[in-house]
Amino acid sequence: xxxxxxxxxxxxxxxxxxxxxxxxxxxxxxxxxxxxxxxxxxxxxxxxxxxxxxxxxxxxxxxxx
Length: 65
Description:
The protein is of the alpha+beta class. Helix content is 38%, strand content 22%.
């Protein structure tokens, strides 16, 4: 998990599957709405919304930072 977080903070791209695994490991719950995958966490103000694709787009990477 630490290596994945380091890759995100160093602006290295990660796959959707890696992002999903990380967010769920951090306590986020996944809710799918059509093509949008919304990750929510109780007590956390923001939702993280991702589209499933091979690698995350730059704006999606910024959501994780």
